[in-house]
């Protein structure tokens, strides 16, 4: 499945994760402080550029990006998250940005010199992107953006945010993405949300009060914005799936280490058939999820788009993150009472897994996408 270069990349990241990330992972989660040292480590390793086209120093491969994220998330969800929040805005700009926008922003995103965020979600619409109410009203050669957003991850550290807003009147409004630099007058970033998981990278509300941005900051044409948003999410979802695979594999790693060192009723816990079958089922689920994720990632690399890419991405994201939740739950059970103690890292995996079932489109939304594909074929 992987070429020699990809296997070498995976082995490098696996080694770095064990040596550099593992000692920091619990503390990042406990303190909920942004891991600037991990951000700098990723920059030094050149990992931000991995999925970027070769002209920006990358591999142009979502498969390679998934390999990196899987290995990082196996050890530290939050460090992997530093890459993911950068890559979704990248996908949107690459897919719908003008040449000027690409030249202005992509080199900095590739090196980590620039940090980005994307803001779609609003309190009244959740995963329903089409239901957003933030407006972009034309005034001369500019737009004035007004509205509010929630759960904008990485907002306090981003140099710019891709903000989704509707243009046109209420009856004929269309969604567009706008590049909003953080120093724009009228943009306010609210307090970071206290989260059960994914605690190291903050998520905040945004408040926009007639934020003026030039027309040159709009991605695509006014009629093209929704397509750009959806394609960006489709290209990002295999990477979200890779986070699920990595998290599940890490939970299984910890569970195996634990049961091999514990004894009950005169024998090793790992010798009980019920425990062995539970571990086997966890491994089966992980391998199935891994296959689906890399199939979807290969589809992105091969240029698949539209409804077929949406279907593959939804299947990968949904199955992999549901697997992460199941495996983390079973791992917690293997730990027994120790699993609910902060002295062991397994409850961190459990909390982070729950987040994955919700972010980037809930898994109920993914099932809707898959079902629409099935019904369309049936017709």
TrEMBL record:
Coiled coil: none annotated. Its EC number is 3.13.1.4. InterPro entries: Acyl-CoA_Oxase/DH_mid-dom (IPR006091), Acyl-CoA_Oxase/DH_mid-dom_sf (IPR046373), AcylCo_DH-like_C (IPR036250), AcylCo_DH/oxidase_C (IPR009075), AcylCoA_DH/ox_N (IPR013786), AcylCoA_DH/ox_N_sf (IPR037069), AcylCoA_DH/oxidase_NM_dom_sf (IPR009100). SUPFAM superfamilies: Acyl-CoA dehydrogenase C-terminal domain-like, Acyl-CoA dehydrogenase NM domain-like. Residues 224-374 form the Acyl-CoA dehydrogenase/oxidase C-terminal domain. Belongs to the acyl-CoA dehydrogenase family. This is 3-sulfinopropanoyl-CoA desulfinase.
């Amino acid at each position: 499945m992987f070429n020699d270069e990809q296997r070498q990349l995976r082995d490098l990241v696996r080694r770095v994760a064990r040596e550099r990330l593992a000692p920091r992972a619990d503390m990042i989660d406990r303190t909920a402080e942004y891991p600037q040292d991990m951000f700098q480590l990723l920059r030094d390793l050149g990992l931000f550029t991995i999925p970027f086209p070769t002209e920006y120093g990358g591999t142009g491969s979502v498969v390679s990006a998934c390999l990196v994220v899987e290995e990082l998330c196996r050890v530290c969800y939050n460090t992997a998250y530093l890459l993911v929040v950068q890559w979704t805005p990248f996908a949107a700009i690459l897919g719908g940005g003008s040449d000027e926008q690409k030249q202005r922003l992509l080199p900095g995103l590739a090196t980590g010199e620039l940090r980005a965020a994307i803001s779609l979600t609003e309190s009244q619409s959740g995963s329903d992107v089409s239901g957003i109410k933030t407006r972009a009203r034309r005034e001369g050669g500019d737009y004035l953006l007004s509205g509010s957003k929630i759960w904008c991850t990485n907002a306090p550290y981003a140099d710019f945010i891709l903000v989704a807003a509707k243009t046109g009147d209420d009856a004929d409004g269309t969604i567009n993405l706008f590049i909003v630099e953080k120093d724009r007058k009228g943009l306010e970033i609210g307090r970071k949300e206290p989260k059960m998981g994914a605690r190291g990278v903050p998520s905040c509300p945004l408040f926009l009060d007639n934020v003026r941005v030039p027309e040159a900051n709009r991605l695509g044409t006014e009629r093209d914005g929704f397509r750009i948003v959806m394609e960006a999410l489709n290209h990002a979802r295999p990477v979200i799936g890779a986070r699920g695979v990595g998290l599940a594999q890490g939970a299984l790693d910890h569970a195996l280490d634990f049961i091999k060192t514990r004894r009950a009723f005169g024998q090793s816990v790992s010798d009980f058939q019920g425990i062995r079958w539970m571990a086997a089922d966890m491994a089966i689920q992980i391998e199935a999820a891994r296959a689906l994720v890399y199939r979807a990632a290969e589809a992105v690399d091969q240029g698949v788009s539209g409804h077929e890419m949406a279907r593959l991405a939804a299947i990968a994201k949904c199955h992999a993150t549901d697997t992460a939740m199941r495996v983390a739950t079973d791992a917690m059970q293997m730990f027994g009472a120790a699993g609910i103690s902060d002295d062991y890292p397994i409850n961190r995996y459990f909390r982070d897994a729950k987040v994955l079932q919700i972010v980037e489109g809930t898994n109920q939304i993914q099932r809707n996408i898959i079902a629409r594909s099935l019904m369309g074929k049936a017709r």
